[in-house]
Amino acid sequence: MVKPNEIVLRLYENKQCVMFTYKLIIDDEAGEHLDLTFKKQADDVWVMTMIYPKTLYAESQIYEIAIKLPKRSMPLEKIASFGITAIREYLNNEISEKQRIIYAVGQQNE
User: Fold this and answer.
1) Other beta carbons within 10 Å of 34
2) What stretches of 3-75 show up as alpha helix (H) in DSSP?
3) pLDDT of 19-44, one tens digit each?
């Protein structure tokens, strides 16, 4: 569950939050986290951006997902929760597709 104090770097226009960041903790002890940045696109649509850093085997990757909310006005914590769910589903799908490729590559090497 996202807590209000986990929502940082809020940007307001006309007393309405139009952008904020949620720090997704990867490894608390190591201080490793990913910033999920949310930007309001319309009354019920926010765009979440996550930058996955460069690794030994891959360049950094930018993930951008539009999130359509069920209501026009929702607490930021709820919006962040929708974003976390969306990125989890996206990454699960990406992993499944990459596993299919790994299997196909393995079949070619037999």
Assistant:
1) 15
2) none
3) 999 999 899 899 889 999 999 999 99
